[in-house]
Specification:
By secondary structure, the chain is an alpha/beta fold. It has nine helices and 15 strands. It has two domains: about 120 residues, D-Maltodextrin-Binding Protein, domain 2 (3-Layer(aba) Sandwich), CATH 3.40.190.10; about 80 residues, D-Maltodextrin-Binding Protein, domain 2, CATH 3.40.190.10. The strands form four sheets. It has a five-stranded mixed sheet with strand order 5-1-6-15-7, sandwiched between helices.
């Protein structure tokens, strides 16, 4: 009797093993790769302690993902490589204080806008000559390459535009006297002035009005839908306003 039971048990174990081997494994959940140029505080920067990307965009992306129910990883990528990477679908998307422009929309999709930005001029704290756009004629202007600040500076007559891979380098050269002014978004410009009040100051007010969006690979309509779903949710429940108050206190 025991031999019979052992044989039956052995047959059952073999069947379970065979069926288990033939059953396809459950597909792994998609993890979206999101690029961010972490040189643009308070939107995104690197926490020197944790070495992680922190800032408004990082918090917003986390809230969007939680609301829409998808997983993602945030990857620190230089600005030029970020734009090219999304255009070529090396990344599923990018969140990095990206202004929605007609040219960019030719190679990538954008979420619904989540905020606005505007370009502003920053000069040395003791500069009394530059008071607005008109006084930038013929001046040396620092910008981050391929940004809307770069586009604005290129339109100024006789200006010598010096492009940098990251905006912090432009502000460093401004403090060192290598350029006369920097044109960049208001939020990071104000942040650099706040950190260096004895060396920098803002001039005038913003002179552009730009909508910010999360960039998405053109081949990934499904992800764009998820991103917009998450954005709509955090706008409706007040989370987006909460994050804006946290990172852009008035």
């Amino acid at each position: 009797m025991k031999n019979y039971l052992y044989k039956v048990l052995a047959l059952v174990l073999i069947a379970v093993f065979v069926l288990g081997a033939c059953t396809p494994a459950a597909p792994a959940e998609k993890v979206y790769r999101i690029a961010s140029d972490a040189t643009w505080p308070p939107f995104e920067t690197i926490d020197e302690t944790t070495k992680e990307i922190v800032g408004f965009d990082a918090d917003m992306m986390k809230a969007v993902a939680e609301a829409a129910g998808f997983k993602y990883e945030l990857v620190n990528v230089a600005w030029d490589a970020l734009l090219a990477g999304v255009s070529q679908c090396q990344y599923d998307g990018a969140v990095s204080s990206i202004s929605i422009t007609e040219d960019r929309q030719k190679t990538m999709n954008f979420s619904d806008p989540y905020g606005t930005a505007g370009q502003i001029i920053t000069v040395g704290a003791n500069n009394t000559e530059i008071i607005g756009l008109d006084s930038l004629v013929g001046k040396r202007i620092g910008v981050q390459l391929a940004t809307t600040g770069d586009i604005a500076a290129q339109k100024i007559e006789g200006a010598e535009v010096k492009g940098y891979d990251s905006v912090d380098l432009a502000f460093q050269d401004l403090m060192n006297g290598q350029v006369d002014a920097v044109i960049a978004d208001l939020a990071p410009s104000a942040n650099f002035v706040l950190l260096n009040p004895d060396k920098l100051k803002l001039v005038g007010s913003t002179f552009t009005d730009e909508a910010l969006g999360i960039a998405v690979c053109k081949d990934n309509a499904e992800f764009l839908t998820l991103v917009n779903k998450g954005l709509a949710a955090i706008q409706a429940n007040g989370k987006l306003d909460e994050l804006k108050a946290k990172w852009f206190p008035k």
